[in-house]
From TrEMBL:
GO CC, any one term: cytosolic large ribosomal subunit
Keywords, comma-separated and alphabetical: Ribonucleoprotein, Ribosomal protein
One Pfam short name: Ribosomal_L30
Quaternary state and interactors: Part of the 50S ribosomal subunit.
Designated name of the protein: Large ribosomal subunit protein uL30
Amino acid sequence: MATIKVKQIGSPIRRTKDQRATLIGLGLNKMHRVSELQDSPEIRGMIRKVQHMVEVQD
């Protein structure tokens, strides 16, 4: 399966609890951390939910 690299570029400070939980679910909880995940509709939805705090890399 294809994979996606996601980098956290925004801070979870003053964000809602569900957005913080989504970052943790993506394997991100500190600035500039990169996580490599399987490409699936569920992961795409999680990325879309916190798109203002993450960056998708090639």
